[in-house]
Amino acid sequence: MIYHQVIYVDKMKISNQPLSEQTYFILLSLQSEPKHGYAIAKDVQFLSTGRVTLSVSTLYTTLKRLLDDGWIRLLDEVQTESNRPRKIYELTHKGGDVLRAEVGRLDTLVSAARVRGVEGVI
Question: How many structural domains are present in the chain?
Fold first, then answer.
């Protein structure tokens, strides 16, 4: 049986819908350590084995939404050699809960496929 998992944090429902691949991979990238935007984009490309490439617009629009939702936070802002600010982002506890909920949802989907004898092919 497949069911929707709903996670409650601080008495607020945070997840019962699938995450977009962009959102999933950004949260996954920040799970290991805080990163700046360019490092996130490169890590997303690596984690997705090249399937997900974030444009600058998509990356910063998604980061803004994740900040507004409280799933990530701005950790620091440092100046680069070219005197441009570089923002460092980190995953929040709430964002980690959302990521774990999505991994659980994906595990449920894969388990159901395996029950029917369907295996992924690389």
Answer: 1
For residues 10 and 2, give the distance between their C-alpha atoms in angstroms, rounded to a whole number: 26
Q: Which residues of the chain have pLDDT under 70?
A: 1-16, 121-122
Judge whether 33 lies within some domain: yes
CB neighbours of residue 57 within 10 Å: 8
CA–CA separation, 41 vs 52, rounded Å?
Answer: 9
**Domain interval for residue 60:** 20-115
For residue 52, tell me if it sits in a domain.
Answer: yes
Amino acid letter, 31 = Q
pTM, rounded to two decimals = 0.84
Phi (first) and psi of residue 42, to 5 degrees: -65, -40
Which helix (H) or strand (E) segment holds residue 25: the answer is helix 21-32
For 92, half-sphere exposure in the C-beta direction (CA atoms, 13 angstrom radius) is 14
CATH number of the domain where residue 51 is located: 1.10.10.10
